């Protein structure tokens, strides 16, 4: 029994000292300073905190939404590898997301972009230099081109729209002109709208095999600890039923991933609250499930 406790303790300590690693093929690395935080770095490079976590696996403590292992002097990824979306949904093939071209209502994106164009046309550029004025005109032309794309009769590929809007946002931020501040804010809102649309198309057709496998692993680990947990007063059968129910949901034709995420998080919190070293293998496995869900679900469902 002492060995079991020691092994579980070592496993638990290992999960608390996760070292973040930038994703393979990262296009841009940034060296952390003492003044940096996850939120400040994300803001500096025009990405969300969730995107920053996805680009640096291991940085985000699963299910706890905290960032306390950002190491000063270490390099972290701030730009996605070529050909990948910046929010890096690893378990969903891009071809699945890209195929959602005819059934998605993108009126919200059209409205946001119209707002961007309106703000650009309303800017007072009289105090700008000729070069700065030309830069603003260039941004306006790009917004108009993108608006024409989303206003077309054939609904565009969402990942293409997301990439173009993100590029526009990066361009505006790079100009560093105070007069463009309201435009930057509107573009950030547009990026979020597109991300949420992309997230809403993932679920019924996505490749959930990794997620199913991870949950099956939870079930297996619970089964292997039945006698130990029962002796500790843990309702093992109830926990197993919950995991079985979640697996059944995932095997359905249109699983509610948001509900699965909520249920998994609730189960993880419940097990962590028991403070039993014997449960370390199970909570570790559930943390892995949480990570997979965070890479599938849209950013607005992560509670960040």
From TrEMBL:
Which InterPro entries does the record cross-reference, listed alphabetically? LysM, LysM1-like, LysM_dom_sf
The cross-references to CDD domains, in alphabetical order and at most eight, read: LysM (cd00118)
First and last residue of the signal peptide: 1-20
What is a single Pfam family found in this protein's UniProt entry? LysM
Signal among the record's keywords?
yes
Keywords (alphabetical) are: Chitin-binding, Signal, Virulence
Residue spans making up a coiled coil are none
Could you state a single Gene Ontology molecular function term? Answer: chitin binding
Give the matching Gene3D superfamilies: LysM domain
Keyword flag tRNA-binding: no
Q: Where is the LysM domain?
A: 28-78
What's the protein here called? LysM domain-containing protein
Q: Which organism is it from?
A: Mortierella isabellina
Organism lineage string: Eukaryota, Fungi, Fungi incertae sedis, Mucoromycota, Mucoromycotina
């Amino acid at each position: 029994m002492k060995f079991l406790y020691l092994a579980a303790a070592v496993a638990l300590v290992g999960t608390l000292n996760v070292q973040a690693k930038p994703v393979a093929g990262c296009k841009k690395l940034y060296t952390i300073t003492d003044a940096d935080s996850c939120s400040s770095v994300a803001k500096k490079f025009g990405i969300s905190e969730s995107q920053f976590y996805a680009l640096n696996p291991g940085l985000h403590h699963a299910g706890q939404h905290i960032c306390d292992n950002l190491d000063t002097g270490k390099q972290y990824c701030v730009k996605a590898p070529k050909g990948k979306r910046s929010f890096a949904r690893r378990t969903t093939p891009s071809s699945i997301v890209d195929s959602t071209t005819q059934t998605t209502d993108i009126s919200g994106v059209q409205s946001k972009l119209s707002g961007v164009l309106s703000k650009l046309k309303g800017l007072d550029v009289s105090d700008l230099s000729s070069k700065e004025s030309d830069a603003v005109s260039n941004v306006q032309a790009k917004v108009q081109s993108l608006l024409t794309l989303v206003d077309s009769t054939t609904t565009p590929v969402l990942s293409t729209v997301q990439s173009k809007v993100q590029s526009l946002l990066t361009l505006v931020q790079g100009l560093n002109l105070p007069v463009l501040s309201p435009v930057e804010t509107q573009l950030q809102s547009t990026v979020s709208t597109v991300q949420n649309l992309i997230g809403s198309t993932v679920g019924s057709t996505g490749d959930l095999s990794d997620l199913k496998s991870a949950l099956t692993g939870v079930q297996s680990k619970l089964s292997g600890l039945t006698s130990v947990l029962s002796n500790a007063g843990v309702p093992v059968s109830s926990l197993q039923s919950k995991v079985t129910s979640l697996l059944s949901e995932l095997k359905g034709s249109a699983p509610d991933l948001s509900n699965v995420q909520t249920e998994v998080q609730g189960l993880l919190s419940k097990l962590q609250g028991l403070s039993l070293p014997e449960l370390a293998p199970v909570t570790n496995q559930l943390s892995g499930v949480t990570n997979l869900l965070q890479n599938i679900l849209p950013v607005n469902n992560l509670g960040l």
